[in-house]
C-alpha cells in the first residue's frame, strides 16, 4: 500500500469513526475531560499543587521510547506529549510564582498508572487514552489528540481486515487498551472464529523486533506510533500499516484524583497551545515526519477549535 493511500485511509476512517459534528465528537470526549467530579466526596490533605509547591519539583512521567509522543534524543526528552508537558511546567511556575525543577521519570504503558497512584509522578505525558476503567482510578485533562488502533503487518501478510487476526499472534503495548480490545471485546462480539493470542511488549521497538523476527503475526498500537515504527524500518516497503476500524480514542494526560486545581492548569496550557498555533507546530514537528498528513484531518482541526476556549 502506498504512503498516500495510507494517509487518505487514516483521514477517512478516523473521520468516519470519530464523527466530525459537534454532537458526535463532543459525546465521545466530554465524559472523560476533567476529574473534578469526585472532589466533593473526599479530598486529600495535600493536593498535587500543594505538593509541587512544597517540594519545588514537578515529577513528570515521560516516555523514552514512544516516538512521536515521547522519546530520548541524545539524552534529551522530546516528543509531542513531552513538549506539551513542558508547557504545563512553565504554566505551573507562572501560577505559583516560583522556580520548579522538572524531574523526568521514565514510564511505560505498564508502569504509568501505578507510579501515578503511588505519588512517584504528578502527571504522565504519553499516548494514554481515556477509558471507562481508567477513570475509576485516575482523572484526566482535556484531550490533546485523537487516535485509533492501527495494525502493522508484513506487506505480503494475509491479514487485511480485523477478522483475519483470528487465531493469530498479536503484539501490542503491555498494559495498553489493545489487549482488552482484541482479546475480550472483539472476541465477545464474535469477530474472531478463534481467539487472538495477545503478546505484550514494554515499548513499540520491542514489538517491531518481534514482528521482524516472526514471533508475532501483527503488531498493534496507536496510529502515530505505528507510523513511527514504519518510518524507523530500513525498508518500509516490506511492511503495511492499516486501520482495522475497531476503535477511536481521545488521548489525555492522566493525573491523580481530587486534583481539580492542577487539572485546570494543565487544561489552560493545552488551550493556550491550541489557540496560539502551538499545537499545529508540534503536530507538524512530530507527526508529519513519521507519515501523517501535513495538514491535520478534519477531526483534529475540530479538536483544536473545541480546545480554543472563550475568555
Radius of gyration: 19 Å
Tally of helical segments = 11
Query: What order do the SSEs take from the amino end to the carboxyl end, as H and E?
Result: HHHEEEEHEHEEEEEHEHEHEEEHHH
Which strand order spans the largest sheet, edge to edge or round the barrel? 11-10-12-9-13
Quickly name the level 1 CATH class of the largest domain. Alpha Beta
Number of strands: 15
What is the CATH homology-level superfamily of the largest domain? Periplasmic binding protein-like II
Distance between the termini: 46 Å
- Portion of residues in beta strands equals 15-25%
Unreliable sequence segments:
1-42
Quickly give the CATH architecture of the largest domain: 3-Layer(aba) Sandwich
Basic shape: globular
The share of residues in helices is: 25-40%
Arithmetic mean of pLDDT = 88
Annotated CATH topology of the largest domain: D-Maltodextrin-Binding Protein, domain 2
Largest sheet: 5 strands, mixed
Based on secondary structure, the structural category is alpha/beta
Number of domains: 2
In terms of topology, how is this protein built?
Layout: H1 3-18, H2 22-29, H3 48-55, E1 57-62, E2 65-66, E3 70-73, E4 76-78, H4 80-96, E5 101-106, H5 112-117, E6 123-125, E7 139-140, E8 145-147, E9 149-154, E10 169-173, H6 177-188, E11 197-201, H7 204-213, E12 218-222, H8 223-232, E13 239-242, E14 249-251, E15 254-255, H9 260-276, H10 278-286, H11 298-306
Parallel strand pairs: 1-5, 1-6, 10-11, 10-12
Antiparallel strand pairs: 2-3, 3-4, 7-15, 8-14, 9-12, 9-13
Helix pairs in contact: 4-9
Amino acid at each position: 500500500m502506498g504512503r498516500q493511500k495510507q494517509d487518505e485511509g487514516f483521514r477517512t476512517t478516523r473521520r468516519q469513526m470519530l464523527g466530525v459534528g459537534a454532537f458526535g465528537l463532543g459525546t465521545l470526549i466530554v465524559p472523560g475531560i476533567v476529574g473534578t467530579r469526585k472532589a466533593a466526596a473526599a479530598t486529600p490533605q495535600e493536593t498535587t499543587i500543594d505538593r509541587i509547591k512544597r517540594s519545588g519539583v514537578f515529577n513528570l512521567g515521560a516516555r523514552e521510547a514512544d516516538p512521536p509522543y515521547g522519546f530520548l534524543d541524545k539524552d534529551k526528552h522530546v516528543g509531542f506529549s513531552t513538549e506539551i508537558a513542558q508547557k504545563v511546567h512553565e504554566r505551573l511556575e507562572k501560577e505559583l510564582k516560583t522556580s520548579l525543577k522538572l524531574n523526568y521519570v521514565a514510564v511505560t504503558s505498564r508502569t504509568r498508572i501505578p507510579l501515578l497512584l503511588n505519588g512517584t509522578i504528578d502527571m504522565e505525558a504519553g499516548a494514554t487514552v481515556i477509558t471507562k476503567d481508567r477513570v475509576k482510578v485516575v482523572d484526566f485533562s482535556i484531550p490533546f489528540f485523537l487516535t485509533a488502533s492501527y495494525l502493522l503487518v508484513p506487506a505480503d501478510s494475509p491479514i487485511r481486515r480485523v477478522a483475519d487476526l483470528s487465531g493469530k499472534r498479536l503484539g501490542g503495548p503491555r498494559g495498553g487498551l489493545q489487549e482488552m480490545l482484541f482479546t475480550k471485546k472483539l472476541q465477545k462480539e464474535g469477530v474472531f472464529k478463534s481467539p487472538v493470542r495477545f503478546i505484550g511488549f514494554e515499548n513499540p521497538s520491542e514489538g517491531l523486533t518481534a514482528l521482524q523476527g516472526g514471533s508475532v503475526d501483527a503488531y498493534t498500537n496507536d496510529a502515530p506510533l505505528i507510523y513511527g515504527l514504519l518510518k524507523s524500518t530500513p525498508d518500509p516497503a516490506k511492511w503495511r500499516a492499516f486501520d482495522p476500524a475497531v476503535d477511536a480514542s481521545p488521548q489525555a494526560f492522566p493525573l491523580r484524583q481530587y486534583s481539580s486545581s492542577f487539572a485546570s492548569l494543565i487544561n489552560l496550557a493545552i488551550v493556550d497551545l491550541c489557540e496560539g498555533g502551538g499545537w499545529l507546530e508540534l503536530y507538524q514537528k512530530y507527526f508529519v515526519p513519521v507519515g501523517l498528513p501535513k495538514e491535520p484531518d478534519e477531526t483534529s482541526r475540530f479538536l483544536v477549535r473545541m480546545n480554543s476556549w472563550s475568555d
